[in-house]
Every structure is written in structure tokens, then in C-alpha cells.
Amino acid sequence: MQETIERYQRQKKDVRTDKIVIEQNMQHLQHEAANMAQKIEFLEVSKRKLLGECLGSCTIEELQEIEQQLERSVSIIRARKMHVFKEQIEQLKEKEKILRAENAMLWEKYGLPPGQESNEERENLLCLESREKSDVETELFIGPPEGRIKRARQQND
Fold it and tell me: Which residues, by range, are in coiled-coil regions (predicted)?
């Protein structure tokens, strides 16, 4: 009987200590939640200020700090943009080298010296380049526009 009573008392002590530990954990978690809520509020206020909202209550020093932070951010963004552009330029240069080598190989395959295209090919290239550069119609047409449209359709067919 004495053993049963001792076991009961030990169990009762364990339950009390468990309750105390649980209560301490709950208090700690409530404190952490309050801290997180404060941090979130601070970040939201900072975000609003960076977006240019609620600046009326800011002091000159706060405004200067916000300005410096924005300038640092913009400079980081510009540096990243330039880095990406440089990488793209390098990739395009590599692609150009590959295409030039392939072009030289094709010239060699057909027994022509590199860069020696015929007059007709030159005219086609010039025509393509001029079309790409200009959206203006440079041909001279005589007569009403309906006639030009009909002729263009007949040529395309």
C-alpha cells in the first residue's frame, strides 16, 4: 500500500512539473509572438516609407536615411543589370564567333573564297538591310492607291 501511495505522489509531482514547464513554454511563445508582431509592424512602416507613403511625420534625418537607402538599392540594381548585360554580350560574341567559323566552313565547302558573294546576293542583302532599317515606302507609284494594292497582290500571288 505504501508503494502505491509513493507512486501516486511521484506521479502527482511529475504532473505539476509538466504543467509548470508547459506554462513556461506558453509564456515564452507568447513573448516571441509579441516580438514578431512588433518586428512585422516595424517592417510594414519601413516599407510604407520606402514607397513614399506616410512621410509627413518623418524628420529630416529620417528622410535623408531613406534617400541614402534608396540610392544604395538603385546602385545595387544597376550593377546587377550591367553584369547581366555584360554576360549577354559575351554570349552573343561567342555565338558570333561560332557563326563566323561555320560561315567560313560553308564557303570553303562550296569552293569559294570567304566573303565573295555574287552581285545578286549583295543586292539581296542590301535590300533586306534597307527594309529592316526603314518602314517608309520608297518606291514611286503612279495612279490611285487601289491600283498599287491590286498590283502588289498580283505580284505576291
Answer: 5-102
CA distances from 43 to 3, 37, 115 (A): 59, 10, 63
Full domain range(s) for residue 26: 1-57
Q: How many domains does the chain have?
A: 2
* Per-residue pLDDT in tens (0 to 9) along the chain, 157 residues: 888 888 877 777 777 777 787 888 999 999 999 999 999 999 999 899 888 888 888 899 999 999 999 999 999 999 999 999 999 999 999 999 999 999 989 888 887 776 655 556 656 656 655 655 555 555 655 666 665 555 556 665 5
The answer to whether 151 and 144 have CB atoms below 8 angstroms apart is: no
Residues 63 and 36 in one domain: no
User: What's the pTM value of the predicted model, to 2 decimals?
Assistant: 0.48
